[in-house]
Amino acid sequence: MEFSDHIKTANVEDVVLRQPLHPPSRGTVCITGHHLLFSDREEGSSRQVLLLLRNIDAIEKRISGSSGTITIKCKDLRVLHLDIPGMEQCLNIAHSIETLSCLDSVSEMYPFFYRPPDLSLHNQWGLSSPEKHYSQIKELHDKWRLSTVNSDYSLCPSYPPAVIVPKSTDDDLLKKVAKFRQGGRFPVLCYYHRKNGMVIMRSSQPLTGANRKRCREDEHLLQAMIDGSDKGYIIDTRSSQQAQQARMTGGGFESKSSYSHWKRLHRQMERGKALQESLIKLVEACGDESHNMDRWLSKLENSKWLSHVQTALSTAGLLAECVERDGHSVLVHGSEGTDSTLLISTLAQLIMDPCCRTLEGFLALLEREWVQAGHPFQQRCAHSAYSHARLQQESPVFLLMLDCVWQVWRQFPLALGFSEALLLRLANEVYASNYGTFLCNSHQERCALGVTENTHCLFQALLRPMERDYYSNPLYEPTELAIWPSVHPQSLQLWRGFFLRWTEHTRQLEEAQEEIRNMVIEWGKLALSDALSMNT
Amino acid sequence: MEHIRLPKVENVRLLDKVSPRRSRVGTFYLTATHSIFVEDVAGVRNETWVLHSLVCSVEKQSATASGCPLIIHCKNFQVHHFVIPLERECHDVHLSLLRLSQPESYEELYCFSYKPNVNDEEKRQEWDFLDLKADYSRMGLPNSLWKLSPINQHYKVSDTYPADLFVPESASPPVIVGSSKFRSRGRFPTLSYYSKENHAAICRSSQPLSGFSARCLEDEQMLEAILRSNPRSDFMYVVDTRPKLNAIANRAAGKGYENEDNYSNIKFQFIGIENIHVMRNSQQKMLEVCELRSPSMSNFLEGLESSGWLKHIKAVLDAGIFIAKAVAEEGVSVLVHCSDGWDRTAQVCSVACVLLDPYYRTLRGLMVLIEKDWVSFGHKFTHRCNHQVGDPKEVSPIIDQFLECVWQLMEQFPCAFEFNERFLITIHSHIYSCQYGNFIGNNQRERIELGLRERTHSLWSYLWTNQADYINPLYRPNHSQTQGLLRPSTAPYCFKFWRGLYNRFDRGMHPRQSVEDYLSAIQEETQQLEEQLASHKQKIAQLEKEQGWRSVTQKAATFDKSPTAWVRGNDLALANTPQDYTGGFITSSPCQPKAPDSSLILLPKDLNQSSETSLSNGSDQESGIADLSCRSPLSEDSPRDPDSDEAAYSAA
């Protein structure tokens, strides 16, 4: 089907656009296969608004008389209104938006068409690979190996072709372990702590089921992981009750009797639908215009979003504490191992590892722990907070991770090499993007569709000189120390930059960030010219 | 001193709030002005000082096997949790502290015994530092519309008003006196702020004694005079900051509010700020939430909501905005009152001034504003701040709310204020500490009688001398945020909980790195570099002149990216330790890291002594220990300064 089949009216003139932070303007609306374009026709100004249709979460249309108004609610939480003359035109535009904004076919999405002049498809795609990651950590090579047992994705469809596993486990053993873990996600290494040689591994839940099945190979793999140490921790991102219940549906947990050297810690983290509903409630609360303080605080509380932030940070803190301070290796999993597991392993690495706090390091971390590790982006980010569509697999886990990183940045404003602007950009890109990075649900799917050959890589694009400048934290002061976030309710805040982004309020805060950047640049210039003049 | 029943108790434990199992053992000393806890660790001088005038309540709990708990709540929101071995000792300490923290006469207040090393001449200059007349002439007064009236020179017309008052040019003494007789406590309408751009003024008074039907011709003439001194406007607002119901209830007591029919061309408006009792209870509830030990997010937000505190802050700010807009945008004068005109009226007038006039957003400006709208107009500091034993129903955090409104505005406009949060917190501390004479007494007349100028020191000049500590590095006098009227948003989501004040001493809750300190360091260094560069250029020019230019091979210029004035990492090394993520599962004392490099950062010299605690939550720094080798921004002249916890703050 061609895009044009969905476009009955491509152009409408004399449309009034109303959007936050701008006065209303009159101009022409144009619908293409992937974009909504508004161009201002006022004399002397040539303002354009180019909106990726994929960014549109929901639309509402209201017809009155011969004209209509379309309200467009975007996944980046912006709300726009278009006043369109002509009822038929209005309905046509609305229909086109509705259809084109949620096309299912990945290869029809914009990243496959986006061809900016300054990027070439031959550029390197992505920042790293499991192979490169392995080769970079020399300390690993004694006891850990790179296995290509999943090169045809037969063991685990959501894993990349290469993974890091203990040297003493052969591929045959891995095949058996994969059968014992949900979705084949057998335990693999995701982080090596150089300070004490401890590691973080992640997996999905073991399929012990109601009759407490055991798997010797799984037990062996875990034993190999803590080889030479007295014990390891398993952080299960479900409550122990939830883990017990999972046995009824074939899942389960590592029992003390079979895994005697492991201590299980349960932390109940919200996931799936509940998390999505939390986001919806929070966004709804932020849009409340009643100006009533009690109502706001009660809605904020009721959304539970900040509670989820608190739980995520404190579970990540626990994980990091096990590794860094208690000096033990940890296996992390929940049920599927594709959501909360990745969330806390990412945050724990940010807490412990200075390499993950640079701009490149952070992007590489996201690439490893989310893109390569098989977070199902397409399912999780199909819709955001405004959609009226029935919820399916949507869940804002990635957004929650970004929020937690923002909280860390607030508490350690000098310790991260990247800025809030990067987090905001990522929060947009994950829902609607020109780039292929967040397409599909797994490495396998991306390969099948030729994503790396036919789209550009967001992470590479973010590291171009201009972007790098913009997304760097001007105050960055690298520190080797772990950065332990406070999880007191008093220490956590609503991420205003994201949730209230389209308000005047946020604009003043952005001005302050601009001011900070200017100060540092000014000082840097002086220091440089001073150094130069000293040398002459 | 006769009130000290037991000057010294040994083997006292000071508990850590975050993890009570972690405590320090030491000796507890009682002096006339402070309680001092000295930790028993060889070679380490860790002391915790508690200023008695800052003590808000002392609670002795029932004895347990480990001793008798004594909990001291301070007015700066610090809480000390001691355990005293013997109940008898605890009893004595408790009684002594109760007495010492509740002076029965002014003479006992700390400001009369606080003697920094300044001579009489310097002391006089201290008090001359702020001059309210200068502020009125900055506003352009007196002029043809407003005059300085001598009518209250001996506090005869209103004993709670200042001696110098501005009134409309046309207001004759009989009108003023007549009007004052028709107002509670004689607080007749007088000028608080005048906008020289458009002649609109903010005036303040107490409520009229109108009852159900009383009128007063002079009072009506007084308002008429105020209206006439704004020639471009044909009406004025009268703002009653109380909820309508409260105002109506006052009518039964012969007080009340202005009847629009009796006054020509006024627009009457209720604003609905609650009274001092509601505010006191609200803050109390909020503080209970702040003190919860590891509350969940829901506990905290629910508690914050049910305290109503932010709702009240919003109400005060809303009222300020209403007045500021009337003056700046409509050019209309406003008369503000509540009941007595010294609580809500002070809040609302001063908030409006901060919004209206960039001057009040400067360091000196805010001091002037507090001196004008609060101190001189008779906000009852002694009663509201409970400086000495008195009616607990008179105590109320009215000034706290003003400072918080300013803080909320600073959060919304980070470039618009010359001062920083530390400035507000320091002012707050000293409003309650009684260390300086500024906030002693309930009105100007009392202060003169007490001879405070002669016998005590002034906070303002202290703050001014130490202004480097209080400058907001982001402040730009020419920034667009800084100009003219501030237009804050009052959407509820713009209001934040003020952690920096109410959980000030819970260091673990605060950001571990300060952008502000970093920027200040940069700013300082930028200035130095500019000077250096200028002198280099001069030298080069000289060289060129003397020997002609010789080409010099240029080395690659490099510079260390950190400003040298910035002490790197000290806060991280000390205060940055894991939180209670575990819920107590790792019960063993924290393992030493296997590799020593996690504590590699060199400790700054003055914090070395507590380095052994760097792995145990940096608790010394957290609980506000007076680290005597640290420079104390609060009081350099007194080596034994109770508030030098500030030092830890500034070192961070």
Automatic annotation (TrEMBL), chain A:
Domain of life: Eukaryota
Domain Myotubularin phosphatase: 124-499
Sample GO molecular function, one term: protein phosphatase binding
SUPFAM superfamilies: (Phosphotyrosine protein) phosphatases II, PH domain-like
GO cellular component terms listed in the entry, alphabetical order: cytoplasm
TM spans (from-to): none
Any Gene Ontology biological process: negative regulation of autophagy
Pfam assignment, any one: Myotub-related
InterPro entries in alphabetical order: Myotubularin, Myotubularin-like_Pase_dom, PH-GRAM_MTMR6-9, PH-like_dom_sf, Prot-tyrosine_phosphatase-like
Family according to the record: Belongs to the protein-tyrosine phosphatase family. Non-receptor class myotubularin subfamily.
PANTHER family noted in UniProt: MYOTUBULARIN PHOSPHATASE DOMAIN-CONTAINING PROTEIN (PTHR10807:SF52), MYOTUBULARIN-RELATED (PTHR10807)
Protein name: Myotubularin-related protein 9
Annotated organism of origin: Collichthys lucidus (Big head croaker)
From TrEMBL, chain B:
Keyword vocabulary terms for this entry: Coiled coil, Cytoplasm, Hydrolase, Lipid metabolism
Domain Myotubularin phosphatase positions: 126-502
Segments for region (Disordered): 607-652
GO BP terms in the entry: phosphatidylinositol dephosphorylation
Gene Ontology, cellular component aspect: cytoplasm; endomembrane system
Name of one Pfam family that matches: Myotub-related
Primary localization: cytoplasm
GO molecular function: phosphatidylinositol-3,5-bisphosphate phosphatase activity; phosphatidylinositol-3-phosphate phosphatase activity
Regions of compositional bias (Polar residues) in chain numbering: 607-622
Domain Tyrosine specific protein phosphatases: residue ranges: 307-351
Coiled coil regions in record: 512-546
Membrane topology annotation: Peripheral membrane protein
Annotated catalytic residues: 338 (phosphocysteine intermediate)
KW Lipid metabolism (keyword) present: yes
Subcellular location field: Cytoplasm; Endomembrane system
Domain of life of the organism encoding this protein: Eukaryota
Binding site for substrate: 275-276, 338-344
Family to which this protein belongs: Belongs to the protein-tyrosine phosphatase family. Non-receptor class myotubularin subfamily.
Protein name per Swiss-Prot or TrEMBL: Myotubularin-related protein 7
